[in-house]
Design goal:
heterodimer; A: about 230 residues; 5 helices; B: seven-stranded mixed sheet; 29 strands; about 35% helix; globular
């Protein structure tokens, strides 16, 4: 399975993801410069974390206009895999591949922490290596990760099993106190209705290396390989 | 000719002006005067401290690059080389906390990647006034946000550091940032220009009027009028810096870059003259080719601008376009702005004529040096403080101490100490820093006595377990009470913190934050602290590879009375970690493990202690004295114990003494501890909260205790003791006749410790 990782000026998790896909799970991986447009050799496109173009206006607001994003949309429309992590999730909502928006955290501060996440009870290609309803712990690091969408969209996301990850406590209980950033319905990650596009604020690539004593994110990459 | 006021406005003394006239053989023009003003500031030329700095040991087999370049470089083995340096941004942060701190981070990162190293970690050492003051809260939160803004965006994890709060810093906070980087180029990129006729490239961002004369501003006392100096504070753009990192490292790898220098303090002036002076050549630069941020700038403004995210390169002739293409691909400027010339002179052109012409060494090398007279008698404040003895405190028993007619139990004392912001959890701060980006953070902030980062090359990722540990340390109260002993203690504590994670201390960078050296007391503090650092670095084999001097850290109160900060020589130390899977945290690991105090014979004192300051509102006495022989033995025993797998946790006993250290191990590990005393105690407060140099608390698996104790006897003789056991949920200390001196559930300790800093930002405190 061949991975491509988009590099915008200001991306800063691109190498972290490449380390996992290339060195930890041993898959062919190449970087995609933001002005490149040919993605035909790739099975999976990952839009990584960082501050694309500085994100001074609004997260992802400039990146959506970059040449590579049209190709990412085409790639997604062919039913191929697209994963947006953190800034990548913000960009996917900006280009309209995923519904909703990510706004400033509830307490207005940047948050870097490790948080428990409840995995959807439904089998998905992104989570097949986890147990349904399993609670995993992944790092988060964002200033604008508060998921927002109108009531109809939230209902549709729930009805179509598009909510893959929700913030919870270590026992899996989901309520306001287990919501680090104020996201609607404690949403940490969602897919499109077809399920081939995933956007998530937590960083699975930062929990995929036994040397760092954190491997809860590895299952996501391994699930993709099995898909 | 200039008026005395015009000369003073550039930060120059009348005698310095005369010296300039003599060296040039004429009067300088306005631009030249400005160039001398910034280059002869303490910030750039160390005119007050150079003679003291010369006593530092700076060499050793581990040192690849010592002081004088943009950063020091040490050898970590396996071909891995680490660049590291610390720098202050105190005065800008006092005036504009957010941008002051942000650009401090940006500046220290440029020092690292200018050498050809990719930045892998940021630490910082911060000092603020009391959090009770709304102004301090504004400065504190602004500085934290500024560091977060820059570090998070540029993608370098902020992994550690230290923060103290004390009224001594209320008008003059200290913001020291330290950065570490792994060399990515075969050759270490130096700053000396070479090759007459080689083009000089200006790369990075544009030049504007921001940060005019920041170096002279940083070398003067702060006053109410300093608020009007806000243009002297630069504005940072971490996005541009991130692109600049990638473009520079790419450029260096072409082999077409002869030399590089970042534009920090004094911008174009400093970079041209230092590159020329370091290379023994001259540099010609045409200001008309510099990309300008705004029209109509005069040479004075170009030359003194401290616009951020800019660098100067000397390139191989004929290969300049290759470099320019790289910078343009990253959306940055890259222009040929001048050339290297034989004549050792900095010559600046503007609109076809010479705007400035100065011998390079006059600006960068052969600069004024001031020798101040060292007073032979300690200043009065010190003599008064030293006269204090513990007998001046009320008597105490195992139950507590009577203060103003009221009994305060040891439980209450401990709870109060854990709530002191300097000791309390810094969770509120480091949660705002991305401390995991780059995927190498081995120990999360707060988890151990030092930060540990894996050294994974981002170019060719072969599995490696090598890592680097880093820490910043200085107990400024100790240095204030006794600059010599306090400075020694700062170096020893830094090495001890590295040893507590199992790292081998290698070298230091230091940031000397002091008051005015022109005052007898200020110079006395500076001189004795430098002597202490020099001695400690020799004793612990950790040479000085560079650093920064920040003097004139004083504020004027509204009556015009100058108040100096506590003398604060911050030590940034790095250490080698051979296997990152074998490092050690500070929290207990298992119920039933045995707790040992290494260095138990080191005398405990309440002099300069947190207990004395917090509970008795007294800053007095003599701080703990470092015994280097014992210190080395204790640290080596700790490191070897970790390496051999006996030691499961290790924590330095620092502010708050033994009991605060025990409490921190309990909180961090989510376990309790019980300590049963075998012998009667003379003074309970001294025993529980007295501070000592060279003590480490470790926990060891009970089944291994025989071999461990055998090892301790061979390495430390009697200088250790088994003091207790790890338990489930309570910290208990029992007297020899089995009554409780102290007993608190860990959850209560934890809540108090965790929420202290945050509580100052709840609406109730803000009113």
């Amino acid at each position: 399975m061949k991975f491509g990782i988009v590099v915008f000026p200001g991306s800063n998790c691109d190498r972290d993801v490449a380390y996992v896909t290339r060195d930890v799970i041993g898959q062919p991986t190449r970087m995609i410069w933001h002005q490149d447009t040919d993605l035909s050799d790739l099975d999976v496109v990952i839009v990584p974390g960082g501050f694309s173009y500085g994100d001074y206006l609004r997260c992802g607001a400039i990146a959506r206009f970059s040449p590579v994003m049209n190709s990412v949309i085409n790639h997604a429309q062919q039913g191929k895999w697209v994963l947006g992590i953190c800034n990548g999730f913000q960009i996917l909502t900006e280009v309209g591949l995923l519904p909703g928006a990510l706004t400033r955290n509830r307490d207005l501060h940047f948050i870097c922490d490790r948080v428990p996440l409840k995995i959807t009870p439904h089998r998905t290609p992104w989570t097949s290596q986890y147990d349904p309803d399993q609670v995993i712990t992944l790092p988060i690091a964002h200033g604008e990760g508060r998921y927002h969408a109108d009531a109809d969209t939230l209902k549709a996301l729930a009805d179509h099993d598009q909510i893959l990850f929700r913030y919870c406590d270590h026992e899996g209980a989901i309520d306001d106190t287990t919501n680090p950033n104020g996201s609607a319905s404690n949403i940490a990650g969602i897919t499109n209705p077809q399920g081939n596009i995933l956007g998530m604020m937590p960083h699975p690539e930062r929990a995929a290396d036994p040397v760092l004593n954190a491997t809860d994110g590895l299952g996501l990459f391994k699930s993709l390989l099995a898909a | 000719m200039f008026t005395p006021a015009e000369i003073a406005a550039e930060g120059l003394k009348p005698s310095e002006y005369e010296e300039i006239v003599q060296r040039l053989g004429r009067h300088p023009n306005k631009a030249e005067l400005g160039m001398f003003g910034v280059m002869w500031s303490e910030h750039c030329c160390y005119k007050n401290s150079r003679s003291l700095l010369s006593q530092f040991p700076t060499t050793g087999p581990q040192v690849l690059v010592g002081p004088g370049e943009n950063a020091g470089v040490v050898d970590l083995g396996d071909g891995l080389r680490l660049a590291f340096k610390i720098e202050s941004h105190n005065h800008p942060s006092a005036i504009e906390p957010f941008q002051g701190a942000a650009t401090g981070v940006g500046g220290i990162l440029r020092d690292i990647f200018t050498m050809g190293a990719r930045p892998i970690a940021i630490l910082n050492s911060l000092r603020f006034g009391s959090l009770d003051s709304p102004r301090t809260r504004r400065i504190f939160s602004g500085v934290v946000e500024g560091i977060a803004h820059y570090g998070n965006c540029v993608g370098v994890p902020t992994v550690g550091g230290e923060i103290y709060f004390d009224p001594a810093y209320s008008g003059n906070p200290l913001v020291n940032a330290m950065a570490l980087g792994v060399m990515e180029t075969d050759a270490i990129v130096k700053s000396g220009a070479a090759g007459v006729g080689n083009p000089v490239l200006y790369v990075g961002s544009t030049t504007g009027r921001d940060g005019m004369g920041g170096a002279s501003f940083a070398s003067a006392e702060l006053s109410d009028a300093s608020m009007d100096d806000r243009p002297a504070v630069q504005v940072g753009d971490p996005f541009l810096e991130k692109s600049l990192i990638e473009a520079c490292l790419e450029a260096f790898k072409t082999g077409a870059v002869v030399a590089a220098q970042d534009m920090g303090a004094a911008g174009i002036t400093c970079s041209t003259s230092e590159m020329a002076a370091n290379g023994g050549v001259g540099v010609e630069l045409d200001l008309d080719r510099i990309p300008a941020r705004e029209p109509g700038m005069v040479p004075y403004e170009y030359l003194l601008s401290e616009s951020q995210e800019r660098m100067l390169f000397v390139a191989q002739k004929g290969r300049e376009q290759e470099l320019i293409d790289i910078f343009e691909r990253w959306g940055l400027h890259g222009v040929v702005a001048g050339q290297v010339i034989e004549e050792p002179i900095v010559r600046i052109f503007h609109q076809g004529s010479i705007a400035a012409e100065i011998p390079a060494t006059a600006l960068a090398d052969n600069t004024p040096i001031y020798h101040h007279e060292l007073i032979s008698e300690p200043p009065d404040y010190a003599k008064t403080a030293w006269a204090w003895t513990v007998d001046q405190l009320p008597d105490c028993t195992h139950e507590g101490i009577e203060i103003n007619g009221e009994m305060m139990g040891w439980n209450e004392v401990l709870m109060r100490l854990l709530a002191v912001p300097s000791l309390a959890s810094k969770h509120w701060v480091y949660q705002q820093y991305d401390h995991q980006v780059q995927n190498n953070t081995v120990i999360l902030p707060g988890g151990a006595d030092a930060a540990v980062v894996r050294l994974r090359s981002q170019l060719h990722s072969e599995p490696t377990r090598r890592g680097v540990a880093a820490t910043t340390d200085c107990n400024p109260r100790y240095v204030y009470l006794n600059p010599y002993e306090g400075a020694k203690a700062a170096v020893a504590e830094a090495a001890r913190n590295l040893s507590c994670v199992g790292a081998e201390p290698l070298a230091i960078t230091n940031n000397l934050n002091f008051g005015s050296p022109e005052k007898p007391t200020g110079y006395w503090q500076l001189a004795h602290a430098c002597r202490g650092i020099a001695e400690a670095c020799r004793e612990l084999n950790t040479p000085v590879t560079g650093g920064n001097v920040s003097l004139y850290n004083e504020t004027f109160d509204s009556n015009g009375k100058p108040t100096a900060i506590y003398p604060t020589p911050v030590i940034g130390m790095v250490g080698r970690v051979d296997d990152v899977t074998q490092v050690c945290g500070q929290g207990w690991k298992h119920e039933g493990d045995r707790i040992y105090l290494l260095g138990s014979q080191a005398p405990r004192t309440l002099g300069g202690s947190e207990y004395l300051a917090t509970i008795h509102h007294t800053v007095a006495g003599q701080p703990p004295v470092v015994d280097f022989e014992r210190e080395r033995a204790v640290q080596a025993a700790c490191r070897d114990g970790i390496r051999r797998g006996w030691v499961r946790s290790a924590h330095d006993c620092a502010e708050g003494g033994l009991v605060v250290a025990l409490a921190e191990c309990c909180i961090s590990g989510h376990f309790g501890a019980v300590m049963r005393l075998e012998h009667p105690v003379q003074r309970w407060d001294e025993f529980l909260f007295g501070e000592a140099a060279g003590q480490i608390l470790v926990s060891v698996q009970a089944s291994k205790h025989e071999e461990w104790e055998e090892f301790l006897r061979s390495r430390l003789d009697q200088n250790w003791s088994m003091i207790g056991l790890v338990t489930l949920a309570t910290l208990q200390i029992l007297t020899p006749d089995n009554t409780y001196a102290l007993a608190i559930p860990i959850q209560r300790l934890r809540d108090r410790w965790l929420n202290s800093i945050q509580s100052y930002f709840t609406p109730a405190a803000a009113e």
